[in-house]
Amino acid sequence: MRLELEDSRILHSDQVWHYQMKSNSHTLKTYGITQCMSRKGNCLDITVMENFFGLLKSELLYLQNFMEHSKEKLENYIHYYNHQ
């Protein structure tokens, strides 16, 4: 799935200092990206996005690494079994 130019883009973030810098805000505006920050001291504002990215990492990234690691170990085991 690709974003089209007319699709709206949103950057969800907390209030870390580098997201609050004017240069960052200017760059986002240049590319038509809306900045969405949580309120100060309120981590619950972006809970949905935090949950989404947590699931994304666990289901895609970590699973992929696990599968690649398991495949490599299995290939090594089979090679050892057949040649030793």
UniProtKB/TrEMBL annotation:
Pfam families: rve_2. GO terms for biological process: DNA integration. InterPro entries: Integrase_cat-core, RNaseH-like_sf, RNaseH_sf, Transposase_IS3/IS150/IS904. GO terms for molecular function: nucleic acid binding. Residues 50-84 form the Integrase catalytic domain. This is Integrase catalytic domain-containing protein. It comes from Peribacillus simplex.
